[in-house]
Every structure is written in structure tokens, then in C-alpha cells.
Amino acid sequence: MSLQARSGGPYPSNAAGLGGLPTKATDVPICSVFIVLYLFSAATNSTIFRRNRRKNHKFILSVLLTGFSMARVGTLVLRIAWANRQHNIRLAIAAQIFVNAGILIIYILNLILAQRILRAKQPAFGWHPILRVSYKILYCGIGLALAMVIASVVVSLYTLNTHTRSICRDIQLAALTYLLCFTCLPLIHIAAAFLLPKSNEETFGKGGIKNKTIILLISSSLCMVIAGFKAGANWSPPRLANNPAWYDSKACFYIFNFTLEISILCTFIFGRIDQRFHVPNGCKQAGDYTRLQQKSSLEAAIGENSDDAGGKGDI
């Protein structure tokens, strides 16, 4: 009896998985390239946040993007470590969990951006108390889905009971399906914003609502592709590791995960969401976008006039 069997696992899975078993020759160079790209994203978003903060322009979502990029660096480092320690099952578990967990930050960020568009186009509906409570429930659902995925993956690798593994698979499928539905919510928000009867529209950030909508459509669509690929691959009948399907290939793994994620990050960075989607601090109800923005602009103008007056006095 092996040491793993005596200790109760973890037991290696004989089923094919997304990306397959990482190797030094293939995965290490690819992961290294993506690490550089994510580090660039982290540095850029961190720089954007610091520069905006110095101008009293607070945009916390830049911090989220920085955190996501650094989390992805950790994910890729784990995969490189796994490639060098292929038989380390615990390392494989950690690498798989990080792959599924990181993208949730982008899912949440998309919904936040969609909220802002809906609240600007349809203030009364967008700020309705029932909708605000629904958001809290949805965010709790994200946390629950993540916990379900982590727990089911770990339990399935620490048991040989086929019934328990079947239950774990069902839990994973339920969580992945929820995440797929969650990625569709921003598009539903956009549809509601533009299809509902016109209301007293508000403005926020820089630029028109059309450009904001295009940025969100690109990001949300890519997230739907990522979540749809993962859900579809996992809903498909399991296959043995020596007979993987096309969606288990390394090409699909890197394209439908990291390549699409980098595309989303580039859309956010070059689309300057820190300027376009910025809303004033303290927005809590319909009308706050416009009212607080005007107040902020007035205070800035008064400050500039005071500086000018002080400068002339010095002269």
C-alpha cells in the first residue's frame, strides 16, 4: 500500500483536465511570457491609481485590477512549480484552484461597471432598494460558488468513493453554471439601461455613454466566453487522461484563460476606465452622480481661483 493510500490521499486523478499535465518544455516558457504581461498590467494599474490619488481622484477598481494581475502571477508561478514537480498532487490542487479563483475579480468588476451605466441611464430603477439587496445576494453567491469549487476539488482528491466524487462533480457543475449566469448580468443591465423608457439621465466620468458601453460589452463578452468554455468543458462527459478531448489541450487552456484575460486588462487600461467610469465619492441614491459631480467641480474651480489669487498677491 502506498503512503498516499495509507494517509488517505490525495489521490491522483485519472481523468483528463483542462491544460493537461504541465511540462517544462511547453508550459514554463508560455507561463513566463504571461507573467511578464500580468506584471505589466499590475504596474500600470498601480501607477494609474497612485497618480489619480494624488489628484484626489479615487478609483478603487484600479486596485482590484492590480490585485487580480498579481494573483495571476501567483497562478502562473504555481503552474511552473507544478511542471517541475509533476507528481506533487498538493501543488496540482493549488494550481487548479488558483486558475478558477482569480477571474472572479473581473466578473465582479464588470457588474460594478454595469451598475454605473444602469444608474446613470435609469436612476430610479438602478438605485431601487430591491436591486441593491439583489447585488449583495449575488456577491455572496460568488463567494459561495468559489468555496464550493475549492471544497469539492479538495474532497474529490482525498477520497476513492465514487459516490462522493460524483457529488463533488455535481457541486462543481452547479458552481460553474452560476458563474456563467453571473457573467451574463452586465449585458442584462445594458439592455435594461437602453430599452426601458427614458428617465432623467445622469452623467458620470469622462466621455459619452456609448464608449463606456462598448468597453463593458467587450469585457463582458470575453468573460462569458471564458465562463462558457469552463462550464462546457466540465459539463462534457469525463475522459481519461490518455484520451483527452480538444478542449483539454494546452492551446485551449492558455487561450480561453490567460489570453482572453490579458485582452480584458488591455481593454480596461487603454480604454481608461479610471476616467470613464469614475463616480463621485458618497453616491447613495438617484441624483447623486450629477449633484456630487457638480459639487466636486465647483470645489475644484474655487480651489484653482484661490491659487490664482494667491499667486497674484505674491507677485
Automatic annotation (TrEMBL):
It holds the Pfam family DUF3112. It comes from the Eukaryota. Coiled coil: none annotated. The chain crosses the membrane at residues 27-47, 59-81, 93-114, 135-159, 171-194, 214-233, 253-271. The keyword Membrane applies. Keywords: Membrane, Transmembrane, Transmembrane helix. PANTHER family: INTEGRAL MEMBRANE PROTEIN (PTHR35184:SF1), YALI0C10208P (PTHR35184). This is Uncharacterized protein. It comes from Hyaloscypha variabilis (strain UAMH 11265 / GT02V1 / F).
